[in-house]
Amino acid sequence: MPTVKTKSLTTRSRSAAPLPPRAWQRMLSGRRLDLLDPAAIDIEIDDIALGLSRVARWNGQTLGEFGFSVAQHCLVVDDICVHINPALRPEHRLMALLHDAPEYVIGDMISPFKAALGFDYRRFETHLEQSIFIRFGLPAVMPAPVKTLIKRADHACAYFEATQLAGFTDSEARQYFGEPPAGYSLTITPLPDKLAREAFVARFDALMQMKG
After folding, report:
1. Whole-angstrom Cα distance, residue 39 to residue 130?
2. How do residues 37-46 score in pLDDT, each as one tens digit?
3. CB 3.0-4.6 Å disulfide test: which of 87, 90, 93, 115 passes with 210?
4. What's the pLDDT at 20?
5. How many CA atoms lie within 13 A of 3 on its CB side?
């Protein structure tokens, strides 16, 4: 019989052009989010809530049966913002609830590590945040007073987390995160991810209805 010459799979694989690196992540909603150039249309609140409910603050180094999720942290930050400014508009409360939303795909990095990574990480995080805000009908950029308020509430929540969950003394927590807001007290009970996710979505839906 005549001999048929074939090329081996190894030879073909070596000659084929390499695939470009994958820059998107597939979500359980079915969306594909381009991490380098995120499009607002590919962002869904259920994906955000799921991701944030499974990302632990303090890299999981906290007391309790469950980690303290970023989803639950965002709920507390919204509560503190309202305590400081009871007249806060619904769209600004949504910004507070979503202030850490980019972490649903990039995870929660502690502040010292973010600083070490430098500007490129901050630019990536900011780009994703802007896409999230646009997706839900919010201004792409936080107004400066709202940003200041949310940062204050974020530090206050970190104070309570640090002293109740992460082993900081009161003086250490005040040194790094400042004074907690006057008249506000909080006892943190970390929630299972399912409950944190449901609470996050419920708060989001309520604020979206209020915003109109």
Report:
1. 10
2. 889 999 999 9
3. 90
4. 67
5. 1
Q: Which residues contact 31 (CB under 8 A, 6 or more apart)?
A: 42, 43, 44, 47
Which runs of consecutive H residues, i.e. helices, occur in 41-110? 45-53, 70-84, 90-97, 103-106
Residue type, 131: S
> What are the structure tokens assigned to 156, written together?
């206050």
The predicted model scores a pTM of 0.85
- The residue to which tokens 């250490």 are assigned: 172
pLDDT, tens only, 3-26: 544 444 444 445 567 766 777 889
Are 180 and 202 spatial neighbours (Cβ–Cβ below 8 Å)? no
Say whether 118 sits in a helix, a strand or coil. coil
Which amino acid belongs to residue 123? R
